[in-house]
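Hey, resending since the last one bounced:
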Amino acid sequence: MGALTGKKIAFLTSQVGVEKAELTSPWRAVLDAGGAPSLIAPATEPVQSMVGDVDKDETFDPDLTVAQASSDDFDALILPGGTVNADKVRGDADSVALVKAFVDAGKPIAAICHGPWALVEAGVLGGKTLTSFPSLRTDITNAGGTWVDETVFHCTASGWDLITSRNPDDLDAFNSTLTDVFSKA
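The C-alpha cells again:
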C-alpha cells in the first residue's frame, strides 16, 4: 500500500496552456503513491498541454467538469502551472469557487509555478507563506501572502496546508512534499 492509497486527488486546469511536466509529474507521483488522481477542467473538451508555455504537446481528457466537481469528493487539490492555464483558471469564477471550497474545507492544496494565481483570486492567502514563479511575487504580496524564493514551501497557517514550488525544476521536491502532506489528510 502506498502513502496515498484511498486518497482522491483533484487536478484543476483550464482547457489550454497547462505546463505538461507540472501536470504529468505530480499525476505520476500520486499514482505511484497509490492515490487516485482526477483531472477537472471547465469543459469536457481535451486539455491542451504545453512545454515552456509555447509548444503544444499532448492533450488530456478531463474526468470531470468544474460544474460536476465538489471538494467533498476529494482529499486534496493540485494546481499545475503554465501561464495561460493559470490565467484562465483564475478568470473562471466556478474554478475559483472550487479552489475556495477546498480552502474552506481545510483540505490541502499544492500549487506550482503560476498555479497560485487561483489562490490569489480566491482571496485565501492572508497569513500564508508561499513560493511561485517569481513574477507572481507582487500579486501574492498584494493578496496578503508572504512570498519566499525556495524550491518548495509547506505552510500550515490559517487552518489548511499549502505546498508550493517555483517551476518544473522543483518537481522532485514538490512531489515528495505533496505526497507526504496529502498522506496525512
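The two ends are 16 Å apart (CA to CA).

Sorry for the duplicate.
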